[in-house]
Amino acid sequence: MLEVTDLTKHYGDVRALEDVSFTLNDGEFTVLLGQSGAGKSTMLRCLNGLTSPTAGSVALDGATLDNSREDVAMVFQQHNLVEGFSAYTNALTGSLGRHPFLRSVLQLVGRKEKLTALDALGTVGLLDEADQRVATMSGGQQQRVGIARALVQQPDLLLADEPVASLDPGSAETVMHYLKTAANEYDITTLVSLHQVNIAAYFGDRFLGLKDGELIFDGGPEELTPGV
Ligand code: ADP
Ligand code: ADP
């Protein structure tokens, strides 16, 4: 369970987050909605320890999160993959956690991690493309490799920051489909930030709405109305 309590982040005079509290239950697939500048990235960065909050706390299964934790995985808008390497090698780097990427370290990766990488590629529908170089793949496929890499990390919490923002609507839906399938299959608590309410409404089990750094909505699909 993820517990966010009175989370506040100020950048100088900018109140990026103000007293935000919510709880995510295990395995829940939640969408974080809000316009550009609402505080979504700041929220995700506080949850994965990339940013330290000005005030408030974040706890995962009762333990306070800090930036050394490896049980939080992140999928980025720009996928941050190594383009010259195959989908498989990129997925495998998830098993290195937050260590710097090193070819020599990869050679030490064991059979279990290799099987996990193939399993994750299968989950995102890319088993046949495992040996393909990421540079030759479409934006949607690349994002699915990013999801596979996050799965290989075997996280308790999966965060995705606008994972479909740079994709056309068709690819965006495909990527969201695989993200949701993966979260369900591996039973991972997932928080995805999106600014497209239509895609969010289709995939989310639960929705958090941010506006000017404040949590203005927390509810299920039946309570969601356009224009959050
Ligand atoms: P979103 O992801 O919803 O677009 P952000 O979390 O990126 O929102 O930004 C929330 C607010 O905080 C915006 O006003 C943004 O300009 C500001 N902000 C974000 N990051 C920084 C930073 N590193 N320094 C100063 N202001 C920032
Ligand atoms: P997004 O809306 O996708 O979060 P932004 O353009 O708001 O993208 O932010 C991109 C990066 O720039 C982030 O790392 C964010 O922290 C930083 N940033 C955003 N706004 C500011 C700002 N006003 N001053 C300094 N850094 C900022």
Name the ligand types: adenosine-5'-diphosphate
Low-pLDDT residue spans: none
Helical stretch count?
Answer: 7
Spatial sequence of strands, sheet with the most strands:
6-7-8-3-9-10
Kindly report the average pLDDT value.
Answer: 91
Q: SS-based structural class?
A: alpha/beta
Strand content: 25-35%
**Approximate shape:** globular
Backbone CA Rg: 17 Å
Count of distinct strands: 10
What is the chain-wise order of helices and strands?
EEEHEEEHHHHEHEHEE
Taking the sheet with the most strands, its summary is:
6 strands, mixed
Helical content band? 25-40%
Cα distance, first to last residue?
25 Å
State the main characteristics:
single chain; 228 residues; alpha/beta; 6-stranded mixed β-sheet; 4-stranded antiparallel β-sheet; 27% strand; globular; binds adenosine-5'-diphosphate; translocase; nucleotide-binding; cell membrane; membrane; AAA+_ATPase
How is this fold's topology laid out?
Elements: E1 2-11, E2 14-24, E3 29-33, H1 40-47, E4 55-60, E5 63-64, E6 72-75, H2 87-92, H3 103-106, H4 111-123, H5 139-152, E7 157-161, H6 169-186, E8 189-194, H7 197-203, E9 206-211, E10 214-219
Parallel strand pairs: 3-8, 3-9, 6-7, 7-8
Antiparallel strand pairs: 1-2, 1-4, 4-5, 9-10
Helix pairs in contact: 4-5, 5-6
Bound molecules: adenosine-5'-diphosphate (2 copies).
The site of one adenosine-5'-diphosphate has 11 residues, from strand 2 and helix 1.
